[in-house]
Amino acid sequence: MTYIEMQGLSKQYPRKEQWALKDFQLSIEKGEFIAIVGPSGSGKSTLLNMLTGFEQVTKGSFLLEEENVTNYSPKNRNIAMVFQEYALFPHMTVRDNIAFGMKVRKENKQTIEEKVHWAAVSLELEELLQEKPKSLSGGQRQRVALARAIVREPKLFLLDEPLSNLDAKLREQTGVLIRQVHDQLKATTIFVTHAQDEAMSLADRVVVLKDGVVQQIGTPREIYEAPVNLFTASFIGRPEINRFDGEIHGDGSLIVQDERFGTDFDRFPVQQVIAAVRSEDIHLSDGAGSHSGVIKKIRYMGSDQLISVLWKDVLLAIRTSTDSSVSVGQKINFTVDQKKVFLFSCNDHKKLNEV
Ligand code: ADP
Q: Which residues form the signal peptide (predicted)?
């Protein structure tokens, strides 16, 4: 039995021609951590709102443990949602905020006490139980919101951009904590974010959305190493993947900017292509087949450095070790790891088929 099934979920808002979400298809196993990632307007909130029941589904169904809950009211779904804006009660202490839903549901006092304690320990809030939200930092507030969600022991957790109000360090810490709590509880989780790095570092599987249409579903590694189209290749990974117009010739060579980018492409038909290669797959080298460019910018990152190189009329990003001593204005040679070059069709931007 699949724990959660989304079968062709679609949404068209009134007076809008474009579908906000089209034929969304996903099966989720119990305990999985799924990230939905896409740029603004790709349909992430629409999907979440349909899952919680705040927005009506135009077409398709949503099954939770084989029960069709598509048209259930939000409160009958046993789904807990954590928002970006925390939504805590300002006049209540942390303890009362966490206990609130359980009190409303008239759960037994001792059970409430035990669950509050357990959630506070899991989310490192024990010292803060008597505080009011206004005296907490953003990260602490977010942890209270999570604690409030976990005491419900819902069938599904929906996290809507839960890290986006936090500064970089807290974002990382809270992300790790969310994953820890997930692993402890084995709670099935859907995490929605526009930030690809969060999706990639936290989730078991990532769903990439664009314009309401799923582009790819896979493990972070699959998405990064085998993108099925140019959008996924560009959206996932930083710096953005280098892309070039190119041509495959009859001898199997890939020609970019009139230079031979590789010789090993005879498995593809002769045609115009879009070639894409990540910054770490271009290497500074004077070896055979190298190209020359001029360094325009260097970004020191600590563990490595990113250099922008002007090669003819394109600017490309190359990631190198900090051992390579380079300077702006310097002429350098580079080679491309041709096994790591992705090829996409010029027409529909899909991964090119081999012959
Ligand atoms: P995201 O959360 O990824 O930014 P949304 O789900 O908010 O994307 O939006 C998807 C599309 O649906 C967008 O084109 C947006 O303009 C449209 N949309 C979202 N909410 C409404 C609404 N309530 N009424 C009409 N159109 C909407």
A: none
